[in-house]
């Protein structure tokens, strides 16, 4: 099914944007999402059900945006840019939260452990190492298979390289000395300062890379990882564009997670129950400020004149609508503890949906759409969407099964699998000029 877009057996057609073709499915999807809602067992800000829900409705909007060719409408384009930024923001938030609370940077400790103590070490710290590899495996399995079978560069599926890269940055930031965790910071409050300094260094490095495109290219076109960041014409321009437009997104998510922990730690907010986060007066003020924040970005999206200019400004103000939405979504205990099961279901398979759309839903390298039922556009969308979503769900399910075998709990089998992976990868790398 992934080879549909390369065969002439099925018809393809160009995208034709109208306001109706974009906003009617938009309204229909949100009506369904609001209909299927229920009470969550969690009460914390950005709990798992809520983040799955948020990723779900954002992904559905992005799919409608790609299907209808709405990128030609600048205000819609800029709002979708916020959705991509928000996904990276939530990724940074979630991974930072895990690292902060577990406090087990397995690879660093492994370096300082003796091999004769390795089995003991693995039993106590192996879960963290396995999770590190599991996350990368889940992110990249489908893309790796598609790159090899379809002869596509890794950058063709730009979002997966983006989230994988920033996940690695998140890990390095937390694992590098001095290592700071929630438990160590509670024991020694001075460590909060160390964490702040890490953020200063992280934002500074990102800014320096942005200010010098030549320096950026020298880093990312270095072998052997050059093949991960260039397109088929050996250009790094696509990676440069994708990286710079969301360069602060993950770091902002990490910083928000850190600030949120401090607010909880010092009892400034209490989200362990179904009550509002703040007092009545403060809640009304925060709500008003958040609505204004959303209005400011919407005004910017409608007033900016061209994409290059808007894209340059976007990284500096994208946090405004994201934080505004988080406040509006969580300030009320009633809203915070309810979520849409419909959107959350799609949120769980959001990455597979993003990748699979290139080969099942869309055609001609995303410039057109697949046609299974000619002359009946609505029926065609319904059928192709059903096939597309079912395949994405099954790929997600298969990946969850395969990860248990690819990343086993026994370290000996894990090392064996890693060795086999590199034995397969190295010849392919030589063939493609990686080394």
Automatic annotation (TrEMBL):
Protein's UniProt keywords contain Transmembrane: yes
UniProt entry keywords in alphabetical sequence: Glycoprotein, Membrane, Transferase, Transmembrane, Transmembrane helix
Transmembrane is among the record's keywords: yes
Pfam family, one: Cas1_AcylT
Subcellular location as annotated: Membrane
InterPro entries: Cas1_AcylTrans_dom
Domain of life: Eukaryota
Membrane topology: Multi-pass membrane protein
Transmembrane portions of the chain: 16-36, 57-78, 84-111, 132-151, 157-180, 192-211, 284-303, 315-335, 342-361, 373-392, 413-430
Domain Cas1p 10 TM acyl transferase: 2-112, 115-418
PANTHER family the record matches: N-ACETYLNEURAMINATE 9-O-ACETYLTRANSFERASE
Family: Belongs to the PC-esterase family. CASD1 subfamily.
Official protein name in the record: N-acetylneuraminate 9-O-acetyltransferase-like isoform X1
Organism the protein comes from: Limulus polyphemus
Source taxonomy: Eukaryota, Metazoa, Ecdysozoa, Arthropoda, Chelicerata
Gene: LOC106472479
């Amino acid at each position: 099914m992934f080879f549909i877009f390369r065969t002439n057996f099925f018809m393809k057609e160009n995208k034709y944007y109208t306001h109706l073709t974009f906003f009617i499915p938009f309204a229909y999807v949100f009506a369904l999402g609001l209909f299927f809602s229920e009470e969550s067992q969690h009460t914390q800000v950005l709990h798992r059900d809520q983040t799955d829900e948020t990723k779900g409705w954002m992904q559905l909007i992005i799919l409608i945006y790609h299907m209808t060719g709405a990128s030609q409408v600048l205000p819609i384009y800029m709002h979708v840019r916020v959705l991509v930024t928000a996904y990276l923001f939530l990724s940074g938030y979630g991974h930072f939260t895990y690292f902060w609370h577990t406090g087990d940077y397995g690879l660093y400790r492994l370096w300082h452990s003796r091999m004769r103590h390795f089995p003991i070490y693995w039993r106590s710290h192996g879960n963290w190492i396995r999770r590190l590899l599991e996350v990368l495996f889940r992110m990249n399995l489908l893309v790796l298979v598609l790159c090899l079978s379809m002869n596509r560069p890794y950058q063709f599926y730009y979002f997966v390289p983006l989230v994988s890269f920033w996940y690695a940055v998140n890990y390095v930031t937390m694992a590098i000395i001095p290592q700071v965790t929630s438990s160590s910071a509670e024991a020694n409050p001075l460590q909060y300062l160390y964490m702040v300094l890490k953020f200063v260094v992280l934002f500074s490095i990102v800014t320096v890379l942005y200010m010098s495109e030549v320096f950026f290219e020298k880093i990312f076109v270095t072998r052997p990882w050059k093949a991960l960041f260039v397109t088929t014409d050996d250009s790094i321009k696509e990676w440069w564009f994708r990286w710079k437009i969301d360069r602060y997104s993950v770091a902002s998510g990490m910083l928000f997670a850190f600030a949120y922990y401090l607010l909880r730690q010092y009892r400034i907010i209490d989200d362990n129950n179904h009550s509002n986060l703040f007092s009545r007066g403060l809640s009304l003020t925060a709500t008003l400020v958040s609505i204004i924040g959303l209005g400011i970005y919407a005004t910017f999206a409608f007033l900016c004149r061209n994409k290059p200019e808007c894209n340059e400004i976007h990284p500096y103000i994208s946090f405004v609508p994201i934080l505004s939405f988080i406040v509006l979504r969580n300030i009320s205990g009633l809203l915070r503890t309810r979520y849409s099961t419909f959107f959350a279901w799609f949120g769980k398979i959001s990455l597979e949906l993003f990748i699979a759309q290139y080969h099942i839903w869309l055609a001609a390298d995303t410039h057109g759409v697949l046609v299974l039922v000619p002359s009946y556009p609505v029926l065609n969308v319904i059928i192709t969407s059903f096939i597309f979503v079912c395949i994405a769900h099954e790929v997600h399910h298969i990946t969850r099964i395969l990860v248990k075998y690819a990343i086993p709990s026994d370290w000996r089998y894990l090392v064996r699998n890693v060795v086999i992976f590199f034995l397969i990868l190295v010849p392919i790398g030589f063939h493609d000029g990686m080394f």
